[in-house]
Amino acid sequence: MLQQEVKELAVSQQKLLIVSAQHSDTTNAPLCAHDHCCDYRSLQVLCNRVLLSGLAIGTLCGIGFFVAEDWLISLFTKADVTIDILHNNLWSLLCVVQPLNSLVFVYDGLLYASQSFAFTRNVMLVGFCLVFCPMITVAQYTVKALWGVWAAKAALNLCRLLGGMYRIHIWWFQTAESLSNGTV
Fold first, then answer.
1. C-alpha angle 49/32/43, rounded to 5°?
2. Cα-based torsion angle of the residue sequence 118, 5, 63, 85 in order, rounded to the nearest 10 degrees
3. What pLDDT, on the 0 to 100 scale, is given for residue 77?
4. For residue 23, what is the DSSP state?
5. Contacts for 82-89 with beta carbons within 8 Å, 24 or more apart?
6. Of the four listed, 63, 108, 139, 168, which is most buried by Cβ atoms within 10 Å?
């Protein structure tokens, strides 16, 4: 069922892009031939469902990682030094950021479906230069621990999440609403 909804979302977004490209004559133009399935409100509901599903899966993964910590670590290493590093707050950080990561990946998919490639590139570039690089530099000279690298990566993903939220929920849905109302 969710797979079908995701397919419908992709098709609806593509149709919205076609309509927006032809918006010179969009007074009362539907977003697709079937108004009931492809209007911007349906897209909004579907996007929210996909995001909630991603958040739920990320949260479950984070909880699963936390519960199965020793077993999962043993799958990857037997070295006591590495195990000690992972048990020293690093694993907790990795568990906590799973919901954030899952939302980032869902937003990546929504951004790609809306063909926001240049926007995605710009968010990644800004996040890398203004968030990740300064944090990794501070971690290198002050923290000197692996969790500093993962904290910098989590901060970069937070930047990506905020960018995706802006592009999808503010810019994209407002554009879709304007097109559907014929105000553009």
1. 15
2. -30
3. 93
4. G
5. 85/145, 85/146, 88/147, 89/147
6. 168
**Residue linked to tokens 């995706």:** 164
CA-nearest of 8, 4, 42, 12 to 114 is 12
Q: Decide if 23 contacts 42 (C-beta within 8 A).
A: no
Q: Tens digits of per-residue pLDDT, 99-153?
A: 999 999 999 999 998 889 999 999 999 999 999 999 999 999 998 888 999 999 9
State both tokens at 58.
Answer: 């990320």
| Cα distance between residue 135 and residue 152, in whole Å | 5
* Residue owning tokens 């692996």: 146
| Of 139 and 180, the one with more pLDDT | 139
The one-letter amino acid at 91? W
Whether the per-residue pLDDT at 24 is higher than 50: the answer is: no
Look-up of token digits 């999440």: 161
User: Which contacts (CB < 8 Å, 24+ apart) does range 107-113 have?
Assistant: 107/51, 107/160, 107/161, 107/163, 107/164, 107/165, 107/168, 108/160, 108/164, 109/50, 110/9, 110/13, 110/47, 110/50, 110/164, 110/168, 111/164, 111/167, 111/168, 113/9, 113/10, 113/13, 113/14
Give CA–CA dist 158/85, Å, rounded: 24
